[in-house]
Amino acid sequence: MEREQLLDLYRDMWLIRAFEQGLEAEFEQGNVPGMLHTGLGQEATQAALANNLKASDAFFPDHRCHGLNALAQQRHKGDGERIMAELFAKSTGVCGGKGGSLHSADPSVGNFGDNAVEGSYLVTVLGVALAAKMRGESRVACAVLGDGTVGRGEFHESLNMAAIWDLPVFYACVNNGYAIATPVGEGHASADIVDLARGYGFPCEQVDGNDIVASHDAVAKAIGHIRAGKGPYFLEFKTWRWQGIFAGEFRPEAEVKYWREDHDPILMTDELLIDRGVDADELAAIEQQQHALIAEWIAFAKESPPPDLVKATADVYAQWEVGGR
Amino acid sequence: MEREQLLDLYRDMWLIRAFEQGLEAEFEQGNVPGMLHTGLGQEATQAALANNLKASDAFFPDHRCHGLNALAQQRHKGDGERIMAELFAKSTGVCGGKGGSLHSADPSVGNFGDNAVEGSYLVTVLGVALAAKMRGESRVACAVLGDGTVGRGEFHESLNMAAIWDLPVFYACVNNGYAIATPVGEGHASADIVDLARGYGFPCEQVDGNDIVASHDAVAKAIGHIRAGKGPYFLEFKTWRWQGIFAGEFRPEAEVKYWREDHDPILMTDELLIDRGVDADELAAIEQQQHALIAEWIAFAKESPPPDLVKATADVYAQWEVGGR
Amino acid sequence: MNDTQLDANPAPSDARPKKPRKTSFTKALNDALDLGMDRFDEMFLIGEDIAEMGGDFGVTRKLWAKYGAERVRDTPLSEAAIIGTCVGAAMVGMRPVAEIMFADFLGECYDQIVNNAAKVRYMFDGQFSAPLVIRTACGGGFGGGPHHSQSVEGWFLNVPGIVIVAPSNPADAKGLLLASIESDDPVLFLEHKALYRARSDVPDGYYTTPLGKAAVARTGTDLTVVATMRMVPMALTAAEELEAEGVSVEVIDLRTIRPYDAETLLESVAKTGRAVVANEAPKIGGLGAELSARIHEECFSELSAPVGRVDGLDAPIPFSVPLEHEVLPDETDIATAIRATMEASR
Amino acid sequence: MNDTQLDANPAPSDARPKKPRKTSFTKALNDALDLGMDRFDEMFLIGEDIAEMGGDFGVTRKLWAKYGAERVRDTPLSEAAIIGTCVGAAMVGMRPVAEIMFADFLGECYDQIVNNAAKVRYMFDGQFSAPLVIRTACGGGFGGGPHHSQSVEGWFLNVPGIVIVAPSNPADAKGLLLASIESDDPVLFLEHKALYRARSDVPDGYYTTPLGKAAVARTGTDLTVVATMRMVPMALTAAEELEAEGVSVEVIDLRTIRPYDAETLLESVAKTGRAVVANEAPKIGGLGAELSARIHEECFSELSAPVGRVDGLDAPIPFSVPLEHEVLPDETDIATAIRATMEASR
Ligand SMILES: Cc1ncc(C[n+]2csc(CCOP(=O)(O)OP(=O)(O)O)c2C)c(N)n1
Ligand SMILES: Cc1ncc(C[n+]2csc(CCOP(=O)(O)OP(=O)(O)O)c2C)c(N)n1
Ligand SMILES: [Mg+2]
Ligand SMILES: [Mg+2]
Fold first, then answer.
1. What is the CATH number of domain D21-202?
2. Distance from CA of D328 to the nearest CA of A (A)
3. Tell me: domain C215-344, CATH 3.10.20.600, correct?
4. For residues B5 and B9, what is the distance between their CA atoms, to the nearest angstrom?
5. What is the predicted ipTM?
6. Active site residue C148
7. pTM for the complete prediction?
C-alpha cells in the first residue's frame, strides 16, 4: 500500500477514535441522550469500509458505526459534524434528532441507517441490492453485522436469497468476539462466522480486522468482486471492541491486554508508518488534528438547537397529517 | 433387513398409500373440508420414520404426514381411524375436529402436531428437546420439514441452537424437489439441503427417501446417534410427491415418469420382497387389507358426529371461560 | 388526523372511465396489477409462486408471461426476506407489491412491517419513503383452520405509519389497489378470501379509489352500520332484512382501516343517531373497539343507544366448519345487533 | 368472559405475608423469579445475557449463580428460537420464563406468540398447555428511540389465548409475576422501563396477585381513570391535583390487560358516571379504544359525558427527548382530560 493511502487510513482511524472518545466523555457527563455503543477498537474495520464504499453505494451501519457514518458524511459531503449532532438529538443532525445513535442515515452519502432491531436490515439490504441489479446500477449494498446479530434467522433468509438471485450484497461481519457478554463461540455453532455462511456457495473470507492494510485490501477485493457482477460476498473481520458491557469489563485479562496493547489497530499502523519513514511528530499531529476536529463537532452539536416540536408528528405518513395534542 | 421387518414396512407403506388415496377420493367428492396435501409418493420416508419413533419420542409432522400420523396412532394406540376422523372434522378425531389436516396431534403417541405456518415448529422442537435433555429423558424430538420450509429463517436459529446446546433434535428433511411449484434448486442456494445444514457441525446425511431399506437404516442410525446423547442429526430424504399443484401437473414428463413408474417406493419394495421369495399374492393381499382397513376408517369418520358447538369457545384459556354468542 | 387527505402523490391518475362490466374480485385485482405494471417501471411483484403459477389464488395470473421473471418474482418460503426486500427496494424508489400467501403468515415478517416499513420515513426524518404494498389473503369461512383463516387488521391497528386497506367489492378492489401502488406510504392490502369470487361492475382502464375515504354503500336514516370486507355484503343483506321490518339502515364501507375516514362515519351517525360496527375479528381490541369508542366519544349527545359491536368470538378459528360458523359473525348477528340497538333506543 | 376467574391452577399459593419493605420494582421481580425457581422444578429462565450478566435491566441478577446455567440459560440473539423453545418446553410441562430484552423485539417472535403459544391449547383440543411467561421491557421516556421505547400491548390485544399482564408497582409486579408463572396460559408480562426503579412496600415471601383482576389504586366519587403501568402513578398525580380543585378521582389499575377485569371498571364508572382511560401507546386501535368502547357500551345510561381518551400521539417514538415528551402522554394530559370530562358533564 502507498504511504499516502496508509496515512489517509490512519487519519480516518484517528477520526473514529477521537469521535468515540469525545462522545464517550460527553455521554458520561449526561450530554448525550439514550444508549451508547462505541466503535473503539474497531477503527481499522470501519476505516477500511469507509475508504472503499462510494456515495453511490448503500451501507447499513451497525450500532458501533458512528465512525463509519461520520467518515462517509465527511468524505462525500464535508459535514461529519452532523453525525455528532444527531447523537446529541439536535435539529442539525442527519435525521434532525429523530434517529440518534441507532438510526443515523443519510442516503446521499450511501448511509441507509442502522436498525436498532439487530439484524433486521439483513433482509432490507436485499431490496436495495435487487433494485440496483434491476436498474443495472453498479451499487454495492453492504450490511455491517456483528457476530451476535448472526443469531437472527434473517441471516439465513438473506444469504440464501442473495445467493439465488446473485445480488450485489456485501456482508461485512464484524466479529468482535462477543454479543453483549456472550462469547461468539457460545452463541454460535462456530466461532468463525464464515463457517455458517459457506453453505450458500459464494465467497466467504476472513481478515484480521485490526490490520488496516489487510482489511482495506480484503474490502477492496470483496467490493471488486461484487462490482464485477459476480454476486454476493461475505467478509468476516476478526476484531475486538474496547467497550465491555455496561456493568464493566468481563473478559479475561490476557485477552484485554492482547487487543488493547498488542493488537490495537492504531498502534499497529503507527509501527507500519514509522517503518516507512513517517516521523512520530507527524503522527502525533494527525492525532491532535482529529481530536481538534472532533472538539469542533462536539461544540457544533452542543450549540445546535433541538428539533422543533412540530417534528414530533411530521413524516408519519406521506399523504396525511397526524394531529398533535 | 429381515424379511419380516421389510414386510412390516411394506404394510405400513400401503397403509399410507391407501389412506391418502381414500382421502383424496373423499376430498374430491367434497366430503373433506379445507385444503388437502397428500403424502403419496413419500410412503417410504414416512414408514421409515414411523418404525423408528417411539410413543415417548416427539415428532412434529409436516402437512403431508397423514400417513405418519395414522401409523403412530395405529402402532401405539390402535386407533388410526382417529386421524381420518380429524380430517373429516369430526368429534372422534384426535383434536375433536378443531385441528384438521394441518393440526392433528396426539402427544400420547408422540405426535406433537403440524403447524400450518410452515417451518414455525423448527423452533418449537427445540423446547421439547431441551426439556428432554434437562429431565434426562431419552426422548428424540423430530421435526419433519419440507425442502421449501427450509427457506424460513427459523431453520438457521434452530440448527444453531440445537448445535450449541447439543439437543436431541432429529431434522427429517423431506426434499421432494418442490415447494408448491418452486424447484428446490431455484428456492435455495443448493438443491442439496444438507449443504445448508453442514455449517452447524453435526452429522448431515442424505438418503434415497424412496428406498425403504436405506431410509429405515438411515433413520435408525440418526435416532441411535441422538439417543446415545450425541446431539442433533440432520437427514435429508430425496423423494418426490405425486401431488403437483392444485392447477395440475407442472413438472417435466420424464421426471414424472421416473418417480411414478421407475422409482415408486412401493413398486421398488415389491421387487425386493419378491427377490426374497415372498409371493405376489401375499403382496396383493397386503394391499387389499390396507385398502379395506382404510375403507373402515373412512366409514368411521363419516359416521362420527361433528363436534359439539360448545367446543367453539372451549380451551381458549386454561383459567377463563370465553363467552359465546 | 384521519380526516384530511392531502393527495401528496404526483403519480398520474385517470378519471374513472365509463363502461362497467361484471368482473370478479380476483380479476379486478389482476387487472389493477397489470395496469400498474404497465404504467410504473419501478413496480414489481414478489412472492411465493406468484410467477408462472400466478399465486395461490390466481391474482397474479398471466403477469409473469407478460412482464417476465425479473418483475414478477418468485421467492423461497421466506416471508421476512420478502418484506425486507420490499422495504429496501422501496427505500430506493421502487414500488414493490408483495404477496403474502395467507395473512396468518404476517407474523413471520411482523418486524419488517412494524419496525421498518412503518418507521423509515419518520425515524430518518423524511429521507426515505416505503412505497410498498403487501397484498394478502385474509379471513375465514372455508374450513382453513387456525392458520389460514385469521382476520389480522387488529395486529396492525395500533401501528402508526401503516396504511391498512380492505376492499369489499371488485370495483373498489381495483381502484384501491392502484391507489395503494401509487401511495408513498406502506400499505397492507387485505383481500378477504370469501370475496375473491364476488362479481360486480368494474370500470375498464386505470383509475384510483382514494385511500382514507369510506363509501356509503347504502343510505338509510335510522341506524348506521360500519363494516369492512366481507361484513359489508353481510351488512347489506341484514339491511334489506331490516328494511322489511321498517328500519332504514345506512351501511358505511370503511375501505381504509388505517387511517380511517372518521368524517364520513361520524356524519352518518350524527344523522341516524344509532350505530352498529361489524367485524370478523375477535371483539377484544379489534377494529370494532376503535370505531365504537370514536363514535361514542364524538357523537355522545346524538346517540340514542349505545353502539352495537358485532365481532368474532374470542377464539382462534377452528377447522370444523360448523365450529367456524359459530366463531365468525354473520348476517344474522348483524341483524340481531341492529334490532337490539333499535330496541334499546326506544 | 373476562369476569370469571376460575383458578384452575393447582399450584400452591401462600397467603400474602405481613411485613412489607420498600423494594424496587426490579428487585421485586428478581425476588419473584427466585421464589418461583425455588418452588417449581419445571421452571427455567431463558434469554439474552440473563445468566452471569443478569439481564440488561438486572432483573435476573444472581439467579445464574444460585440455580446454574441449565436453568438460567443464555441464548444467542434469536428471539424466534427463544420463544419457540419456550413453547415447546411448555408443551411438555416445563414452565419457561423468557426475557425478551426490549418489547420492540417481539416482532421477531410474533408468529411464535400469536400462532403457536396462543393457539396450541385450542387447536389441539386441550391436549397441550403453554404455561410460559414472556417478560419484556416496554415503554418510553428515556431517549431510547423508535426501537427501544414502544408500548406493544396493542400488538397483542386482538389475539385470543394470550394473557397480557402489566404491573404498575413493585408489590403487584412480584405477585403478578408469580401468578403468571403459575398460570397454565401463556403470559406476556410487560415491565415498563420507567418503573424499574420505582420503590414501594413489598411483602416478603411467596404470594400471588390474581391475574384478570384490576385494583382500585385510589377511591373517588366523581370520575374514574383507568390506567396501566406508568400511567397509574401519573393518574394518581393527576388525581391529587384534581382533588385540590374539588374533583374526587377514582383510579383503577387494570393490572391484567387481556383478559381484563371489566367488572371492576364498570362498577366504578357506574358509580362515578365519568371516565378517562389513559395509555402510553398511540390512540388508534390501542387499549384505550377497547376500554372506552366497553365503558360506553355498558354504562351508556350512567355516563354524564363521553369517556376521555389519553394516549400517545399517532407516531413512532423519536430519539430526541423533547420530541418524545411531545409524543407520550403525561400527568398534565390526564389532568386536562379529567377537567374536560368534568366540564362536558356539567
Ligand atoms: C433483535 C434484537 N435483539 C436484541 C437486541 C439487544 N442487543 C443490542 S446489541 C446486542 C448484541 C449484538 O452483538 P453483536 O452483533 O456481536 O454486536 P457488538 O455489540 O458486539 O458489536 C444485543 C443482543 C437488539 N438490539 N435487537
Ligand atoms: C410460513 C408459510 N409460508 C407459506 C405457506 C404456504 N405453503 C404451504 S405448503 C408450501 C410449500 C412447502 O414446500 P415444502 O416444504 O417443500 O413441502 P411440500 O409441499 O413440497 O411437501 C407453502 C409455500 C405456509 N403454509 N407457511
Ligand atoms: Mg459482537
Ligand atoms: Mg417440497
1. 3.40.50.970
2. 10
3. no
4. 6
5. 0.97
6. yes
7. 0.96
